[in-house]
Each structure stands twice: as structure tokens, then as C-alpha cells.
Write a structure and sequence with these properties.
Length: 258
């Protein structure tokens, strides 16, 4: 498995950094302080248990947060998304409009990055448990690399259920080009839940479709995620990390044949 950073040409890496600075204007030091303060205030109310591998507890904690509190605790994730997602998608997507699903989409920060890097004319469906986060995500405008609006819809549901579109219809088998997940799989799901998710991701993806999912940055954490996805016939293509200090990475998998 190659490292996303090695594969990139310098010019592309510089372009991703420039876009990240333009679209996510807050500097790292400020984001770090904002997140530390938000985590402190959420912990005072005893609601800090959102970093829970037992998913039912994690979603309860997220549902007890206000949108501004969530934006505070998600600040580092937002910064990292602008660096890891493009490194993983670069050169791997078909050159035609794609259909993408953003799992655990929060208030739309990861969706915003997908909108920027998917081919023109693509559509995104965000699935998120917290209805308040979905309301916020729906209120935003998502733009592609040229600044044109991108169609992004959001549905309130647990991603541990069959993926459905906004009308409630189950997504057809092999109908999606990319399933993305940032800041959730490695933290809020245990091994058996990740296994069920991987099976549902396999169902909706076209053969050769991509799954970009977060994983711990350390070797054993990455190997564990690769083992779980391999059981569902995914091949790991590479991984990307926002910077060497990031405790998390994102692994890019390709769905195997039928
Ligand atoms: C750290 S946030 C990441 C948000 C977004 N992906 C981003 O990168 O900005 C994790 C999100 O996962 C959501 N989540 C956790 N478990 C979920 C589940 N079973 N179904 C849907 N959403 C879930 C939480 O509500 C929260 O919004």
C-alpha cells in the first residue's frame, strides 16, 4: 500500500494546501485553541463521551451538543479534511459526474471538501444521526473547484441501518461511485459495527467504486481497519494523513468485483 503523500506530485500537494488555506481560513493555532476550549466547555456538563466506540453512547453525546459546540470540537477535523480527502481522491475518481455518499456528515464540513474535489456535475448524499446538524448542513451552499454550486442532500438516519436517499428509498445496489467517512469510523464504532458498515458500503458501491474511511494513524489501527474491509472484498489502495502529527489517517479502498 503506497502512502498518499509519496504518490503526489509536488505541484498537486501545493495546490491542495493553497485550496485548504483559501477555503478553510482559520489558522491551525486558532483552531487548536477553539477546539480545546469547546472540549473543556462540553466536558464541564459531563457530555464529553462522544469519543466512544459504543455507537449508541456516542450518538447520545453528539445529540446533547449544540451546533456551535459541535463546530468547536470538530475544528481540527475540519482542518484535516481539507488535506487528507484530496490526497486520497487524486487520480482515482472517474472523469465523469459521480454519485457520492458522505457518512456521518455532521454539519457538512467533510461534504464541503468532497464538493470541491468531485468531478463537475457530481451529487452528494450526506447521512447523519443528529437532526440539528442536518439542519445546519442543509443551510449551506456547497461549491465545486470552479465555485459552481454542487447538489448536496442530507438525510437524518443512523449509518448502521440500510443507506437511504432523502425520500426514504433504500439506495440501489451498485449505484454509488464513492462512499466517504471522516472523523467517525475510527472513533465511534466497534469492530462488529465497522464490519456491518463495510458490508453496506460494499452493497451500494459499484464494482471498482471507492471507499475513503478514517482510521487511526498508527500501524496496528490501520491494519485492523484494512482487515475488516478486506473481509468484505475491499482492496486498500493507499492512505493519507493531514500532517505527521495527526493521530488519524484516511484509508482509500477499492471495492472488489461482484
Ligand atoms: C467528528 S464528527 C465528523 C463530521 C464530519 N464527517 C466532518 O468531518 O466534519 C462525527 C459525526 O458522526 C456522527 N455519527 C456518529 N455515529 C453515527 C451514526 N450511527 N449514524 C449517523 N451519524 C453518526 C455524529 O453525530 C457526528 O456528527
Amino acid at each position: 500500500m503506497e502512502n498518499g503523500l509519496v504518490r503526489l506530485e509536488r505541484a498537486e500537494a501545493a495546490r491542495f494546501r493553497r485550496v485548504a488555506r483559501e477555503r478553510c481560513k482559520e489558522g491551525l493555532a486558532r483552531l487548536f485553541l477553539r477546539q480545546a476550549w469547546a472540549e473543556f466547555s462540553v466536558s464541564v456538563g459531563g457530555r464529553l463521551h462522544f469519543r466512544e466506540t459504543e455507537n449508541a453512547r456516542a450518538v447520545r453525546a453528539y445529540c446533547a451538543m449544540t451546533v456551535p459546540e459541535f463546530e468547536g470540537i470538530n475544528a481540527r477535523q475540519k482542518w484535516a479534511n481539507w488535506r487528507s480527502i484530496p490526497r486520497n481522491l487524486h487520480g482515482r475518481l472517474p472523469r465523469r459526474p459521480c454519485r457520492a455518499v458522505d457518512l456521518c456528515s455532521g454539519v457538512g464540513d467533510s461534504t464541503e471538501v468532497l464538493a470541491c474535489y468531485l468531478p463537475e456535475g457530481s451529487e452528494i448524499l450526506g447521512l447523519e444521526y443528529n437532526p440539528e446538524f442536518v439542519r445546519k448542513a442543509r443551510s449551506r451552499i456547497y461549491r465545486d473547484a470552479q465555485g459552481a454550486p454542487v447538489k448536496a442532500e442530507f438525510r437524518v438516519q443512523s449509518v448502521l441501518e440500510a443507506f437511504r436517499d432523502c425520500s426514504g428509498k433504500r439506495l440501489p445496489d451498485a449505484s454509488v461511485d464513492l462512499v466517504n467517512c471522516c472523523g467517525a469510523l475510527a472513533v465511534n464504532f466497534d469492530e462488529s459495527a465497522i464490519g456491518s458498515l463495510a458490508a453496506e458500503i460494499f452493497r451500494v458501491l459499484q464494482p471498482e467504486g471507492l471507499a475513503t474511511v478514517d482510521a487511526p494513524a498508527n500501524c496496528s489501527g490501520k491494519e485492523r481497519m484494512i482487515r475488516i474491509f478486506s473481509r468484505c472484498r475491499f482492496d486498500a489502495l493507499g492512505s493519507a494523513q493531514s500532517c505527521f502529527l495527526d493521530r488519524f489517517s484516511q484509508i482509500c479502498f477499492r471495492r472488489g468485483g461482484p
